[in-house]
Amino acid sequence: MEKIYLDHVATNPMHPEVLEAMMPFLKEDFGNPLSLYPSGAKAKEAIEEARGSVASLINAKPNEIIFTASGAESNNFALRGIALALQNKGKHIIVSKVEHHSILNSARFLEKAGFAVTYLPVDKSGLVDPESVQKAITKETVLLSIIHASPEVGTVEPVAEIAKIAKKNKILFHTDAVASAGNIPVDVRELGIDALSLTAHQFYGPKGAGALYLKEGTRIVPLIYGGIQEGGRRAGTENVPAIAGMGKAAELAKRDMGKRSDYVKPLRDKLISSVLSKITNVYLTGHPEQRLPGHASFVVEYIEGEAMLLLLSAKGIYVASGSACSSKALKASPVLLSLGIPSHLAQGSVVFTLGEGTKEQEIDFLIETFPQIISRLREISPYSKGWEGTEGETCTVKK
Amino acid sequence: MAIAELSGHEKSLKFLDTPITADATTDIIYMMCPMHLLTLQERIKEIKVGQVLAILTDYDGALEDIPAWCGKTGNEFVGVLESPDYYSFYVKKLKE
Questions:
Q1: How many CB atoms within 10 Å of residue A34?
Q2: Boundaries of every domain in chain A
Q3: Do the strands A4-5 and A172-176 form a parallel or antiparallel pair, or are they unpaired?
């Protein structure tokens, strides 16, 4: 059975050129970048070359890139590190309700450390209203963090507009660009951003390599204490192969981004229009236009996300459910609830994300297979006759 | 660290009451040791003989390290200014 991978927002296969760029550092050039002999110098050179490529991808300066081990680490580092560095100025930060857990849980950490946190609501398409940002700012506000693009519903936030508000109020602005950087154009200078998180495996690089862009002159308290790696801001012997891979992936993303995007967009649109027309009681989540190029997310009524995932997987189609984490705890996705989607409907979340390797015939096969799976699941669903008591957290089967 | 808590060696440091006008400033607050020495070594190359470099750091160990570095390299340790959460060290370049 052929496998159809439609979970590119979870992770991506490495581009062959990325693997090639990593190999010397997994084999003969294994030296520690701080060592003074040739293999150390080669490793150091590879890191600096990668720093230049990652900087170029987002129009930053090389000295504004700090390598980390993941997007989650970059998010933790940015939120906690910048807030703590500024705590003498004020102890209030603002985030949105649709942030990744690495931001939301870092915000909770800061709350325990005595910070006040405002969690901004979003509209039904997942957009943060810039006016709500302005209203949330107080004299104590030091940091604002709004996700660039949601991996769960695909919505791309108006970060340039939000950054202007932050600048006007002299507040630092961080954005989690893990799902967007390398997939859509991100220019930190044009957007007016002070800090930005990104990760390599979202653009055909390896896992274990992330980066934080930190505008020159911005203070940050380290997350990992130790030595002088990354300018004394992030300790630990560098993961040289992964960083070299991230550099190559960034170089390829900069070159191929437009081509990749132009390729997946029509396939995504075909998938969205087919699912909406072939299946009843199914709704697109996120913004209809202002969304990631390869992202198609839905909620399907009367069915649980995990059931869809299992039957699709049995057909060789690998996708995600936005409610995957939460469903284990029988809890609906907080992101979907923030969009105003009722909890019973949020349980029926399914997320298809396309990549440069996605073939049109794979999308055609999905379009043919998915409605059959939905029909089958609805036949056995206890909710197939409809919902009762759909308000709030619980609902019961209509007798 | 309050000045009263400093050791005998540190009491010989030149503590300043007001900032000095520096020709170049480098902010390495929250950057880990020994970035204060590595940065000093690099940035001193960028100023001319007779000019003053200011280094802003929160690292207590710099109270010992920076004057010692100046003695070792033949540059002048002008003094240190204590702020609530960091120090400003002033180093005058005396030779290339």
A1: 13
A2: 4-9+257-397, 16-253
A3: unpaired
The encoded tokens of residue A171 equal 């507040």
CA angle at residue A296 from A290 to A299, to 5 degrees? 110
pLDDT digits (tens, 9 = 90+) for A119-174: 999 999 999 999 999 999 999 999 999 999 999 999 999 999 999 999 999 999 99
Contacts of A215 in chain B (CB under 8 A): none
Question: Helix, strand, coil proportions of chain B in percent (round to 5)?
Answer: 30, 25, 40
Partner A, chain B 43-82, Cβ-Cβ below 8 Å: none
Q: Per the structure block, which two tokens stand in for A265?
A: 């967009």
ipTM of the complex as predicted? 0.82
Mean per-residue pLDDT, A289-303: 96
Q: A56 falls in which pLDDT band (50, 70, 90)?
A: very high
CA dist A331 and A323 (Å) reads 8
Phi, psi of B87 (to 5 degrees): -115, 150
Question: Residue A380 — very low, low, confident or very high, per pLDDT cuts 50/70/90?
Answer: confident
Q: What is the C-alpha separation between A155 and A273, in angstroms, rounded?
A: 17
Residue with tokens 């929160």: B58
Q: Is A329 exposed, middle or buried (0-12, 13-18, 19+ CB in 10 A)?
A: exposed
Condensed to tens digits (0 to 9), the pLDDT of residues A176-201 reads 999 999 999 999 999 999 999 999 99
Decide if A220 and B30 are in contact by the 8 Å CB cutoff.
Answer: yes
What's the CATH architecture for A4-9+257-397? Answer: Alpha-Beta Complex (3.90)
Cβ of B85 within 8 Å of Cβ of A217? The answer is no
Query: Where does A16-253 sit in CATH, by number?
Result: 3.40.640.10
A327 neighbors A321 (Cβ within 8 angstroms): yes
